[in-house]
Amino acid sequence: MVFVAVGAGQADLRGQSHVALVIGSDAYPGEAALRHARQDAAQVAARLRALHYAVVFLENPKRRDILRALAVIQAMATEAEQVVIYLSGHGGMWAGESYYVPVDAVAEGGRPLRGAMALPMQTFAKVLSDRPRQKIIFFDACRSPESWAQDAPPSPHMGDTWGAGLALVYAAAPGTMAYDGGKGRSPFATAFLRHVTPMSPDLPTLLRQIRRDVLSQTQGVQVPWMQSALLVQTYVQKLPGS
């Protein structure tokens, strides 16, 4: 696992108004290996840095590394007004909840998946919900039930609070696949990098642009999805004066 602060050291997260955690995982064992997720995430991290985020980037982290990075973000970005998390790699969906799959959640040979090692979206969302702020999580991973899962991960407590100001942006609709891409990048990462620029519109409009782009790339098969509890007009960039 490589833990990289892009454009800033860890200490530089303090006092920053816009902070991002970007994770790219493709070095899964055996047939579970992906082609583009780590490079996709690296390009997303560079783009967010160009948009004036203090960015922490993880390459092929294990479960404990992700949890440690979330603790760093929570402890050192207490003054941040907006936090973005971008997840690229394997995912799945169990009991209506989407899960991100660390590289050590897959056994040698590529299967079976050790479901209890997968991380639910609530794990990421709750870390950012310790104080009022805008929180955006981009999930470039599958949301289909994995038929090769050995055991389902523990279900989150249904009574848990996700927090106001949260937007969950998924590369695919519930129960469907997000494609790794034939050449270069995944369809979602390609659309993200095309439309997330210094001139990009507010988040709901941005997602419509990304959705149309992904639909075009996949001949209508993959449909990006969003759940939102945003409170204010939100942009994936640091606007002047913010």
TrEMBL record:
GO terms for biological process: proteolysis. Signal peptide: none annotated. InterPro entries: Caspase-like_dom_sf, Caspase-related_regulators, Pept_C14_caspase, Pept_C14_p20. One of its GO terms (molecular function) is cysteine-type endopeptidase activity. It comes from the Bacteria. Residues 16-146 form the Caspase family p20 domain. PANTHER family: MUCOSA ASSOCIATED LYMPHOID TISSUE LYMPHOMA TRANSLOCATION PROTEIN 1/PARACASPASE, MUCOSA-ASSOCIATED LYMPHOID TISSUE LYMPHOMA TRANSLOCATION PROTEIN 1. This is Caspase family p20 domain-containing protein.
